[in-house]
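Many introductory courses stop at the sequence. We go one step further.
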Amino acid sequence: MIALDGASKSQFNEHHAGLAVTFADQVAIALENARLFAELQDELKKQIALRSASAAISSSLHLEQVLSEICRQMGVILDGTSAYIAEYDKTYSAYTVVAEYMSSIANSNEMVSDLGLTYYVKDGAWLFDESIAMDYVVRHADDNDLHSWTGEMISQYSGKTILYIPLYVQGRLLGHAELWDSRSHREFT
């Protein structure tokens, strides 16, 4: 909105209003161009990160390096404060953290490494299994129905939101990825 203020009543006429509309149209175009440019920059950032992850996958036979790069790119692309990839063990109903990424803005509690740690359902851990048919799960620190173990993890690491993504291959659960945001309650789509 453009507003013109004058010192006297009836200072502006139709000519002034026409000029103001012309300026307003130019401002609207500039704002729209800035919005489109920002969207394009975000898309470019995502494409570069995906290309980097693809290059890591195709250039290395070292699983740890590949998973680490994918984890890092997931954190960067989705603007998380940390990201993890965990391998599922159906026999023991457990998962083991096999890759992690912590951004420079992660909080000090979140900077504690989970790499190599195994979490078991028998100890209260919540995890995907073949019976959970979801594409992803989002949990917030302030959810009323938060699983107690997830609530403890969020509290321990000062998280606000966790995005869980199951990793399936031909219907078989291999593990899951987690993206954390410790800055704010965040809605993922």
